[in-house]
Design goal:
This protein is α+β, with helices and mostly antiparallel strands and about 120 residues long. It has three helices and four strands. It has helices spanning about 1-30, 90-95, 105-115, and strands spanning about 55-60, 65-70, 75-80, 100. It is elongated, with a radius of gyration of 19 Å.
């Protein structure tokens, strides 16, 4: 009897691992309009030469990813994976609608606020 229960528990764990891996694989493929040039698990600084100019950035949450663009542009400046379930619901709603910040340093601080 104990062996049967142990086998069922092991099979349930294997099934759960397969389901979770399939879910995360599909969720990465379904992010709308995102074609990152680098892995989405790391922060990318494609335009690091704009640190000192007062450019306005848009930050938006799509699934588990923060997408940063320059306001009015579709070019992606940065992609950051986050755990939205760790954020207050009000922050999640704001990020889904998109927020604007002015300046590169402020944008980095805002990203850090949502990822730490």
């Amino acid at each position: 009897m104990f062996k049967k229960v142990l086998i069922l528990v092991i099979l349930a764990l294997i099934l759960a691992i397969v389901i979770v891996s399939v879910y995360y694989t599909n969720s990465e493929k379904n992010i709308e309009n995102v074609t990152p040039s680098q892995s989405s698990t790391s922060i990318s600084f494609e335009n690091s030469n704009i640190k000192d100019t007062p450019i306005e950035y848009s930050i938006i949450l799509k699934e588990d990813t923060l997408i940063v663009t320059q306001k009015g542009s579709d070019d992606i400046e940065m992609i950051v994976n986050i755990l939205p379930q760790m954020l207050p619901q009000a922050d999640i709603e704001r990020l889904k609608k998109g927020i604007s910040v002015e300046g590169y340093d402020r944008m980095l601080r805002t990203i850090e606020d949502y990822t730490s």
